[in-house]
Amino acid sequence: MEVWLQLLVNGISIGAVYALFALGYTLVFSVLGVINFAHGAVFTCGAYFTYIFLGGVVGSNGLLAAQKLPVTFPLAIALVLAGLTAAMVGLLVETVAFKPLRRRGAEPLLYLITSLGAGVIIVNLIQLLMGAEAYALPSNILGSMPAVLALGHGLQIRTVQLLLLLVGGVTMLILNIWLNQSLSGKALQAVAEDATTARLLGINSGAMIQLAFAIASFLAGLSGGLVALSVNIGGPYFGISYGLKGLGVLVLGGLGSVPGAMLGGLIIGITEAFVPAKLSAYKDAVAFAFLFLVLIIRPQGLFGKPPIEKV
Amino acid sequence: MPLAMPAAKVLRVSPKWLLLLGLLASCSSTNSNAPVNLNAGLPVGAVLSLTGNANVYGQDQRLGLELAQAAFKPGSSMPLNLIIEDGGSDEAGAINAFNLLINQGTTALIGPTLSQQAFAASPIAQRRGVPVLAPSNTATGIPEIGSFISRVSAQSSVIAPLSINKVMQLDPAIKRVAVFYANDDAYSTSETTIFQKAIKAKGLNTVTVQRTQLNDQDFLNQITSALRAKPDLVVLSLQAVDGGNLIRQLRELGFKGKIVVGNGMNTPNIYPICQRFCDGILIAQAYSPELKTKENQAFVATHKAQQGGRVPAQLTAQAYTAYQVIAEAAQRLNKREPLKGMPLRQARLLLNKEILSGTYNTPLGKISFSRDGEVKQESFYVAEVQMNPDGQTGRFALLK
């Protein structure tokens, strides 16, 4: 029983990251109906920005070799700053890769290509500036807090995981409240529902799309920084595996569904955690196989709406 | 009514087009019957992992090659013209870099960084008759790829058991062992087999074998499962980034026993990854900066002067050695049979023979090669990682 509970804790903590990541995809998908493939690269940016804001020194292989910021920020501020900087990167992606196509009413496939291109450029830019080496945030970043917290009954959780879970949970809660109770959140939902009608009602849909990109990229940057706290930054391609997992979560939860992204993330995380030890190297394949099974039963995903056929 | 499927089209290529393609292909590569291009020195290529997961090794290796270039070029009658290509950290990257360098007319290649890459790329060099000297491939079966493939990196079966012997000397009470390895990596799967044999030979009980993948970052499930088996010792065959991450998470989750790691973590670049948690891990090495030979002391002194007092890593020493072997072999060959005007194909063949027939005084000690290209080396070591209080820097302290 203890082991099952421990696996559940492990699954929830990694699932929260997937959920946070997939929320970014979801927000953009809900307003534009396309997937932003540069999202993984923005996530990677968040990890690197966190490292820099925490006073990290750039390694020896990039153009910025041996450089560091003149100031060092505390963890909480560094994470927020990383999120904000990532949001700016996201806005840049929107301006360069999405806006020109949107103005011309281009095919959705073209957005995929331009966003993929933007992602590749960002990753290469990181490599050029920071080098390809691995970076690690200081292991004592949490100060005097223990590395592991005992939850009783033999259960334990790494402190960074708990932090990840808490920040992820609070962020998702705030996002949910904002979307459903604030005027701007409702305006975003209106644009997602029907951009033309929303425009007729006086909502600036262009600004709402930019807002969606900014929030999605903020979430990506924040989760990139949080994950870097837990597992280090393995290089400029750090975000790729999370990007793939996030896509899985997006589909499982139902395209464009915020609650679906949250639940989907947790389900994928828990599924991975319960993959037997002997098959643990294949946990990605098992998680995606589970996704297929769900989609056979509910092709629209857990919270997605079934397509309405107009006659 | 169902849509009619279009009839499958068969691509018909006329012989004229095939001929044209063949001509284009031959134009893009160097004619191996043409003389070796010695304008900038004897062309030698190096394929290193400068990007991707294995870049932490490539950095060490590039430094070794640069130091060797500075040491062997001046005053040489046949200086090497070293061309370094990034082979990434996967098979495709290494294959592309090998093809590129072979087509540029290189007479020998150093690399690639990973055994996994070598199994994919070295057969290409073998088919084209280009000598390859591997500076860091330790998996079983590398020289067996062919007569043009040799290595200066001693294979895992020689080195890995030493660290198991040493850890048993340090703590004879060890009984239960947990093993981790990446099941999608040739080096890891090869080395773990050797580790597991050594563990069995010592009468220890392997209580769990956990499999990971090279790009894994989160190991909580494998660690949870392994810790349930209550091991006294953990043995890892992983690369530097995933291995460093795993050690950090293992220690954080409360494992207090000894950790033995394989050659994949044989680089000071692991220090910033597992930080203070690297402290105390044991590793068998094919190089010691403390070796008291004239060649090694000169190498260490140069390295320290350039690197702010840091002692060289094994991978740096092995890359330096690979360059030295080719430089000395080329020198000897040129003295006996001048390379000027020699057809490229013949130069590659003779250089390969010369490499394999020589004896070399290198930073690794005196080395030579077996007939099939396996390095013959006299001394091996076991070191313990000792981290400094800053948690970011440390050293491999030799265990006597």
Q: What share of the residues of chain A lie within helices?
A: 55-70%
Helix tally of chain B equals 12
Number of domains of chain B: 2
CATH topology of chain A: ABC transporter involved in vitamin B12 uptake, BtuC
| Top-tier CATH class of chain A | Mainly Alpha
Look at the structure and give the mean pLDDT of chain A: 87
Radius of gyration of chain B: 23 Å
Strand portion of chain A, in percent? under 5%
Strand order of the largest sheet of chain A: 1-2
CATH topology of the largest domain in chain B: Rossmann fold
Layout of helices and strands:
The complex is a heterodimer of chains A (311) and B (400).
Chain A: H1 2-32, H2 39-53, H3 75-103, H4 108-130, E1 148-152, E2 155-158, H5 159-181, H6 183-193, H7 195-200, H8 205-231, H9 240-253, H10 258-273, H11 283-297
Antiparallel strand pairs in A: 1-2
Helix pairs in contact in A: 1-5, 1-6, 1-8, 1-9, 1-10, 2-3, 2-4, 2-8, 3-4, 3-8, 5-6, 5-8, 6-8, 9-10, 9-11, 10-11
Chain B: H1 15-28, E1 42-48, H2 55-72, E2 80-86, H3 91-103, E3 108-110, H4 115-128, E4 132-134, E5 149-151, H5 156-170, E6 176-182, H6 186-201, E7 205-212, H7 220-228, E8 233-237, H8 240-252, E9 258-261, H9 271-274, E10 282-285, H10 294-306, H11 314-336, H12 344-357, E11 359-362, E12 365-369, E13 375-377, E14 381-387, E15 394-399
Helix pairs in contact in B: 2-11, 3-4, 5-6, 11-12
Question: In brief, what are we looking at here?
Answer:
Chain A is 68% helix and 3% strand. Chain A has 311 residues and is mainly alpha-helical.
Annotation keywords:
heterodimer, A: mainly alpha, two-stranded antiparallel ribbon, 11 helices, B: 400 residues, Rossmann fold, 2 domains, 7-stranded mixed β-sheet, 42% helix, 19% strand, elongated
